[in-house]
């Protein structure tokens, strides 16, 4: 594949480092078999997950995010003080106010005055944050931005909802980005939201909809998903969406060297692989050992690509995922 000849086709952006963090508490599917009174092997067969990580109650979301940030800084020996903006791209905030970015800045001990803000587009927040960061970097407003996605989704598991409870895992991931020299960047980015699917994946409490004054129950704070309906709607949309994303990049699927998808479920990953028609080695699949980490899913998979030689200069990479909303988002990058 030959890189695009026109610099105008590329929005400059360079990922210079990535990092990850997971809680210490690993939960094997065999342990859930016992917890849920299932026969041996049931949970792994049903979910496709061998193990996932669930934070104990003494672990904070901001603290886990700070660990991922520090991991990225350490891997490339980047000074903490060189970060001039932090974007939190997490699906569920640590609290309603202030923004989660402020709490991550505090936990990570970044210099006082370092700005931070949140972006929330659920499971595809990292893709949205990359697009926003690229715009800010190319406007010359910032020089080095840290994007962190962290979710403790285990805090919202409804164990009565087998469809979602077995697949969810906690985690955090970070990418540090600069404008670069213009040889790497975004070839295309596309986000589409279909709000008729807004009730298919939700946590109703925590905002103005369900609270002590409007009325609420404990269940309102838990994660609920109508998985089959969500899968059907996403499956009906994905083919046309992919065509539009690729058309705007000027590439074909044959040009894409690595695909980094949201690790939604084993069924969605298999469906993605079949729809794309790519060999298994092209698609980054970390689902079996992490489960669905919500917003941390895509950047954790990207970290795997980044550290295993699957994110290399001149070889196009596609990030793609679906999210609550229903939102489809994707990006084609030239590393």
Automatic annotation (TrEMBL):
User: What are the GO MF terms of this UniProt record?
Assistant: 3-oxoacyl-[acyl-carrier-protein] synthase activity
Q: Keyword set for this entry?
A: Acyltransferase, Transferase
CDD domains of this UniProt entry? KAS_III
The name this protein goes by in its record: 3-oxoacyl-[acyl-carrier-protein] synthase III C-terminal domain-containing protein
Species the sequence originates in: Pseudomonas syringae pv. tagetis
Annotated Beta-ketoacyl-[acyl-carrier-protein] synthase III N-terminal domain ranges read: 117-191
* UniProt-listed InterPro entries: ACP_syn_III_C, ACP_syn_III_N, Thiolase-like
Chain ranges passing through the membrane: none
The UniProt entry, under Gene3D superfamilies, shows: 3.40.47.10
Per the UniProt record, one Pfam family is: ACP_syn_III_C
Residues of the Beta-ketoacyl-[acyl-carrier-protein] synthase III C-terminal domain: 246-333
Top-rank taxon, per record? Bacteria
GO biological processes: fatty acid biosynthetic process; secondary metabolite biosynthetic process
């Amino acid at each position: 594949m030959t890189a695009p000849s026109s610099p105008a086709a590329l929005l400059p952006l360079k990922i210079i480092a990535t990092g990850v963090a997971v809680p210490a508490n690993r939960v094997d599917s065999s342990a859930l078999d016992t917890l849920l009174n299932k026969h041996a092997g049931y949970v792994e067969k049903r979910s496709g997950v061998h193990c996932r990580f669930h934070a104990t109650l003494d672990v904070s979301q901001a603290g886990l995010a700070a660990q991922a940030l520090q991991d990225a800084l350490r891997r490339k020996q980047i000074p903490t003080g060189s970060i001039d903006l932090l974007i939190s791209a997490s699906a569920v905030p640590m609290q309603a106010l202030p923004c989660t970015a402020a709490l991550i800045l505090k936990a990570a001990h970044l210099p006082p005055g370092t700005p931070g803000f949140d972006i929330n587009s659920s499971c595809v927040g990292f893709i949205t944050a990359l697009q926003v960061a690229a715009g800010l970097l190319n406007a010359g407003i910032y020089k080095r931005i840290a994007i962190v996605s962290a979710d403790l989704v285990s805090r919202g598991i409804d164990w009565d909802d087998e469809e979602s409870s077995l697949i969810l895992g906690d985690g955090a991931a970070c990418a540090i980005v600069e404008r670069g020299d213009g040889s790497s960047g975004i070839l295309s980015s596309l986000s589409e939201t279909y709000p008729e699917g807004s009730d298919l994946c939700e946590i109703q409490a925590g905002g103005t909809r369900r609270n002590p004054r409007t009325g609420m129950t404990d269940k309102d704070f838990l994660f609920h998903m109508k998985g089959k309906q969500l899968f059907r709607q996403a499956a009906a949309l994905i083919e046309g969406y992919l065509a539009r994303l690729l058309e705007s990049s000027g590439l074909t699927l044959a040009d894409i060297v690595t695909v980094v998808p949201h690790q939604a479920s084993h069924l969605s990953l298999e469906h993605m692989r079949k729809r794309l028609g790519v060999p298994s080695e092209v698609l980054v699949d970390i689902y079996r050992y992490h489960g669905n980490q919500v917003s941390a899913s895509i950047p954790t998979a990207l970290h795997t690509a980044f550290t295993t030689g699957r994110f290399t200069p001149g070889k196009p990479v596609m990030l793609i995922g679906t999210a609550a909303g229903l939102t489809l988002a994707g990006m084609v990058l030239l590393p």
